[in-house]
């Protein structure tokens, strides 16, 4: 390349042939993560969809089906945290209210002292949660969950996948959540 009078090389170099063309398509989880990071919302699919095989095996109930469940039934729900509230209570004890979005709707869970102790600091430190508890009717079209325990969905997923690779498996349902949580 010819130098200019001051001995400098030209600024513009035709290196288009050196630039790699195309990039590998991201998997579903990476695509949704990028959408959340850039757009602050999912476009391709709900963030929970990539965890669907485990959630189905564990018998996780979609929020849209909670009204069909009898009051007092044990359920497992999962979702992305959309709200956490700890309002002051007359008794002075702390009660934690968590709302999850699972793509089919929202579920509301209430954590009293014992459930808070079981869940520990994870209760406030993770966005993706699996919650086990008992349903409670709050009106004709309302249902909430009195939480008994909660787990970090990402940690549970990693342990569930490890157990799958090692040939383990659960039988689903609420006991399956305990198994997955222990595996997790």
TrEMBL record:
Ranges where the record places region Disordered: 163-184
Family matches, as PANTHER family: DNA POLYMERASE III SUBUNIT ALPHA, ERROR-PRONE DNA POLYMERASE
The OB domain, residue ranges: 76-150
Protein name: Error-prone DNA polymerase
Gene Ontology BP, a term: DNA replication
InterPro entries listed in its UniProt record: DnaE2/DnaE/PolC, NA-bd_OB_tRNA
Residue ranges with Gly residues bias: 166-175
Gene source species: Clavibacter michiganensis subsp. insidiosus
Family the entry assigns: Belongs to the DNA polymerase type-C family. DnaE2 subfamily.
Highest taxon of source: Bacteria
GO-annotated molecular function: 3'-5' exonuclease activity; nucleic acid binding
